[in-house]
Amino acid sequence: MRVLITGGAGYLGTHTLLQVLAAGHEVCVFDNLSNSSPEGMERVKALSNRTFEFRNTDLRDRESLIERTKDFAPDAVIHFAGLKAVGESVEKPLEYYENNVQGTINLLYAMEAANCQNIVFSSSATVYGDPDFLPITEDHPLRSTNPYGRSKLHIEEMLRDLAASKPEFTAAILRYFNPVGAHKSGQIGEDPMGIPNNLMPMIAQVAVGRREVVKVFGNDYDTPDGTGVRDYIHVNDLARAHVAALDWTQDHKGARAFNLGVGQGVSVLEMIEAFAKASGRDIPFEIAARRAGDIASCYADPTRARAELGWSAELGLDEMCASSWNWQDSNPRGYEPDA
After folding, report:
1. What sign does the dihedral 188-193-197-199 (CA atoms) show?
2. How far is residue 128's CA from residue 279's CA, in Å, rounded to a whole number?
3. Which of 43, 113, 142, 338 is the most exposed, having the fewest neighbouring CB atoms within 10 Å of its CB?
4. For residues 224-244, average pLDDT
5. Which of the following is catalytic: 148, 221, 232, 299?
6. Would you say residue 339 has pLDDT above 60?
């Protein structure tokens, strides 16, 4: 299969790229490198002993996107590319709608021009908002507490509308719950630009000495220890799910959502404790005010993915922390050349 991966140079993209190559597919990566490094793709080539095409492409440039998509002629698209920080989206909502929503509209036009009818979309558990019940099933009401989540929800709705209008169109909508961890080689991992917006890379950077303290945003939530509870999933499990979803699109039509999670929650303080154990380092932290748009608890019911994709998470919290530390300890400055 010829697979186009948007955002394929990023954290989730490189790990999924490695799995898609291992499955024997031909791949082209589109990425504008705004929050990623080309070094990650070079390491994927070395790990996989495979080559793939790369185009420095911005999804907001519809004309270029259409031409490059037609040139590659994909059978399926895995769509990661997008801005993804909840707090930043509250501060810069128009950037999120332009990049995420308009960028996806352009991608769908490009797919139409290339006669590509299959997409695996990187959605998010934020489309559930503050949950009515736990664990969350795919039938939970959809809503969001922040512009990032609303951008994902708008895209989901577009995919469902497009599938309703085109019987040949297929969309696997993957709702992630919190990807963490790194490849076992320690060669690829999460390397955010600037100050990390996610918990795990912040903890890892404190552990390796790049930052002084982890800020815990709120300790007065209605959770066992007062800190936010999330369903963390190992990035390698997430990558496997994309290969399973690619296979699913070949035998199904319409748009279908799948939760990708472990099915149980871990609090911020529990994650800090687990990482300290894995790294053998003290992880200093301080309590800060809640962030706008955050919720108390969010974790998945992944039953549908297990039943219909034949996929389930295999790696637990210990593996998540150990692999993250292996990556950060081996690459203290991430992909920077002097690392």
Report:
1. positive
2. 33
3. 338
4. 98
5. 148
6. no
Task: List, for residues 100-138, the tens digit of each pLDDT value.
Answer: 999 999 999 999 999 999 999 999 999 999 999 999 999
Query: Percent of the chain scored above 90 by pLDDT?
Result: 93
- Nearest 5°: phi and psi at 130? -80, 110
Catalytic (active site) residue 148: yes
Rg (CA), the chain: 19
**Residue for token digits 């932290």?**
285
pLDDT in tens, 249-273: 999 999 999 999 999 999 999 999 9
CA angle 81, 85, 87 (to 5 degrees): 155
Domain boundaries, the chain: 2-182+232-262+303-313
Q: Name the CATH code of domain 2-182+232-262+303-313 (choices 3.20.20.70, 2.60.120.10, 3.30.930.10, 3.40.50.720).
A: 3.40.50.720
Phi and psi based region of residue 129 (left: phi greater than 0; alpha: psi -120 to 50; beta: remaining): left
What whole-number distance in Å separates Cα of residue 237 and Cα of residue 16? 9
> Over 200-257, what HEC string results?
HHHHHHHHCCCCCCEEEECCCCCCCCCCCEECEEEHHHHHHHHHHHHHHHHHCCEEEE
